[in-house]
Amino acid sequence: MDRFIRRLPVCLAAVLLVLVLTAATGLGLCRSIVGLRQREAENILFYYSEKILLQMQGTMNEAGALAKTAYAMEKGQADPSDWFEHAAGPLLERDEVCITYLFEGDILAAALPKDRFGNLVGRELQDFSYIYTLAKVVKDLVVEGPVVLADDPQQQEVFLFLQPIVEKDAYLGQVAVALDRDYVLGQLGLNDLYTQGYDYELWRVEPQNGNKEVIASSRADVDFSLAQKTVFYLPTQWTLSIQPTAGWLSAAQWVSLILICMLEAAALLALSFLWCTTIQQKRALEKTGSMDKDTGLYNRKGFTAALDGWLSNGDRPVTLFYFSIEGYIQAARMIGEAEELEFLKSIPARLDDYIHNPYLAGRLDAGSYIIAVREKMEEQQREDFAKGLSLELLLQVRMDGEKNFLMARYQYACCQPGVCRGEEEISKLIHEYYRRVSQESPIRMLTEKCCQLIAGKSDVTFDEYTDIEMMELSKTFNRYRKQVEQLAYFDPVFNVGNRPKFLRDTNMLISYDKKRRFKLYCVDICSFSQYNELFSASIGDEILHEVLRRLSRPFGSYVYRINGDVFLGVSLSDESVGFFVTRLQKMFATPITVGNLSFLLQIRIVACLYPEHGETPGDLLDHIQSALRFSKESGDAVVVYSRQLDEIIRTEADILRRMKDAIREDTLEVWYQPIMQLDGGQYTAAEALVRLPDGNGGHFSAGQVISLAERNGIVEELGDYVLSRACVFMQNQGVGLGLKRIGINLSVQQLLVGNSARHLLELIHSTGVDPRRITLEITESILIQSIDRAAEVLEQLRLSGVHIALDDFGVGYSSLNYLSNLPVDVIKIDRSLTKQILTSPKQCALLKSIAEMAAINDLGVVAEGVETQEELNAIAVSGVQFIQGYYYARPMPEEKVCHFLSQQDTVG
User: Which residues are in the GGDEF domain (predicted)?
Assistant: First the structure.
């Protein structure tokens, strides 16, 4: 009974521990599942934020085209009343377009429809909403909504798109276009989130009062406080929040977690029972008084008894080894109790791995060990054995952020059985060890410390001695050590910390207080080499000196120059990243003056946080350098490191690697989508499309592949590959299958480089295909970027027989009258226009007008994205000759498209 009562507290403690561990496991699994779902939500948010920005700034920004027209008309000194109604009239015929304004300077010069808003002409900008003034200030597209215009008699809710007209950073005026609220929200496709199982809320911050204004929400009574969020700017702050409709953990997942926790609890209880049994057995051994509780080796009493047993019963000599780790007590205080205990428990295993013959081992005190080996050894064998075992007993200590190693010094002696006694031999061995140590000279100690410095140990201090000459020598070594550290940790030109100093300082910050948070900022001067090249290296150094002086204000002594014009700063303040970055930008808004020269620097700023973005200085440095590379590639002036950014970088690097390997190994896939000619009911053309496998059975987005190729300078190589493959296909299979032409997309970089026409024609001729069977597809953006250069190259290609197609027509800048000036043979109607053919009479009329104008200019018309019979019927009567879309055929690999075309000669 008494025994049971004594064990009861232990049992209760074990049960309590099991419950705690089970709860911790449950919480950990719960967090992991929630974290996984949140990462999925983050990916969805990233897609939708990109989509919203693309829709707002591109597809739905009708004000942009009008602003460009207004700028051109202003150059021609045209009266706005003469052209604006003509230019904006087709827009107002669309159901979703409600209002168009034109401001010249701060005066409203034109307003449509005239019957509702004509009376506003002549008003000043300040008479309207603050959003117009905001567009003037930021000189960039501003989107506001949904709002009800104060002067609108119908009180219709709209989204305002305000596009300033700017020349050399000077504000000339702006164009405002109001789109219907329901149309805009429908284009954003937020309801798809709800069908995917997510509640959503799109809201923005009202700049005037800072209030939250909800734009769209899946349900009105949902609490989004735990939702995943993404923020973007138009330029006001917009936020999209989403969370699963059933919560981050479903009922089935809760049940699974409970079952796992119950199984874990049962397993832990069983292990607890075994552990208790082991503890009891260990205590029984400790009661004998012969074992060291920390290492499991003999203590001095036990070792002496065991050694006496060997010496009295054995017939072979015993070699006795004594090992002492000098400075062990001080090192143990530094590494802590837990790490010391781990070291002590590892010693028996180390001895077993090293000693393969029978041996005795004991721990005499904190850092002293004694080993007895029953083996006949020569003197050199004893020395080698002692050296090797001293390495096994090596103690690793981290001091000031650097690894240091404490070696075990040793002494050994040979004991003869039947003659020696254990206690006497142990005492003689230890006495001999300390006699030898006391006789070691100071010169040797200085030599050892110098060797430690050479090995990189940073906390070496040369001791003082009673001998005057030795004392002076020691002081000289200390001064020299400080000078070496100065050279190792400071930039010699600018007297600022370098990369090793940053690693040491941040490691000390973390070691001193792991809970203290700090932020790491990297400042990179854009195109700094131009200052050295255009002026001189001394001018460049003066600029860098001024940069350091400015950076020392917010960072103090925590400023480091890690590479040329790249600087790091550690901030211990509680300021938010956004506020601190603004301070840095304002600091460099003032030009730097060197002599009579003045320079306004452009800088990139990237940031990461401890411990959120890394728990070691090396991790923080790696992550901020990744963010800096992303900033340079993306062109973003401010980047804050995130796990998502790291994933983007890894994904893009994987895509680039796969793309380069596929091009080099000739394994990059080119698919083909047949195009139907309505008059003859035959597939007379096809479009070549690049497809890069993602390694998981799918393919990467073609847009993402091409964008990465353009940003990394390999789009010409990619374009040449696709063009060659498509030409070979056309020559070997396409002609025989009844195709008259093959279409290949052309990148702006392929078109605008020197001798591009000759290069493209050489590629085409090298495959043997007739150039008249090749159609090169370009987008309007290529023409807009350099219309004269593009027109010249395209004209050379057309003279050689190559056809030119204008892709994505209807979403860019062209008007119908603009077609007569384009060097093209075919226009391809964008899918966004064909998708509205059944729901919008205006779009139907617009499509007919495009077809009629194309016929006047002797241009072919291809409708893209046709998927249903109803769309086909509506498009067919509009005068379009060619159809491309899923209704007839999806993009297919070369083998499948050959089979498809050979099996289907005609389609009803």
Answer: 516-644
